[in-house]
Design goal:
The protein is an alpha+beta fold. 36% of the residues lie in helices and 20% in strands. Strands 1-2-3-7-6-5-4 form a seven-stranded antiparallel beta sheet. The N and C termini lie far apart (51 Å). The protein binds iron/sulfur cluster. Iron/sulfur cluster binds next to helix 5.
């Protein structure tokens, strides 16, 4: 089939990416019976990738800074996004499954692109550095450390680990909203900054 025949219009109103061409479908080498799909989006992603990466929890992200290549561990598969607009996706059922999952990623890309125009580049680089250097203990030090279990975890350490893995959200720690723990909230704001607070699920409203 030609590229024209493999082209799909996904988001007609997308701010950056609207269409994708399915370039190749091969057997997946890590999951028997599944496929690896190579796709090409209709716009380069070089400037949006650094913005996009901080919209996902650290545990879901692997970022090769020198090549500006982002791999996401989402939807029980690996999705690799290249500056050229190429996207590869493993552990996929079929073409329909690939397009359904890609639609969610394309929405995120378009949101990041819109955000890009009013994002300070140095602030963004700063957020990236913090993201790549952060461990559960850093977060733990800024949690109330009461072990109250309100977040659904037995300990604050377990909560910090799940938070970095993207398996829970920061606003589940309800003591953080109490005045007596405002120092901890300030500690988190200093450690993470507002973009990463939002990435980890903090709703300040
Ligand atoms: S709700 Fe917050 S303070 Fe309570 S155990 Fe969870 S992380 Fe710790």
């Amino acid at each position: 089939m030609t590229d024209e025949e493999n082209k799909h219009l996904i988001l007609a109103d997308g701010a950056l990416v609207k269409e994708v061409i399915i370039k190749e479908i091969r057997p997946c080498i890590v999951a028997e019976g599944m496929v690896r799909v190579l796709m090409q989006l209709d716009s380069p992603l070089d400037t949006v990738i650094p913005i996009l990466m901080v919209t996902y929890p650290p545990g879901k992200v692997n970022y090769l800074k020198n090549k500006n290549i982002l791999t996401l561990s989402l939807f029980d598969r690996l999705i690799t996004i290249y500056p050229s607009g190429k996207v590869s996706m493993n552990k996929t059922i079929d073409e329909e499954d690939a397009l359904e999952t890609l639609t969610k990623i394309m929405n995120d890309i378009n949101q990041a692109h819109l955000h890009q125009s009013h994002t300070d580049t140095s602030e963004q680089q700063d957020a990236q550095e913090r993201l790549s250097n952060m461990g559960p203990l850093d977060l733990y030090h800024c949690l109330p450390q009461t072990g109250c279990g309100d977040c659904g975890e037995a300990t604050c350490t377990a909560f910090a680990m799940k938070l970095l893995a993207g398996d829970t959200t920061l606003d589940r720690c309800t003591p953080l909203k109490e005045p007596e723990h405002s120092n901890k909230l300030r500690c988190l704001e200093k450690l993470l900054g507002k973009p990463l607070m939002a990435t980890l699920g903090w709703n300040s409203g």
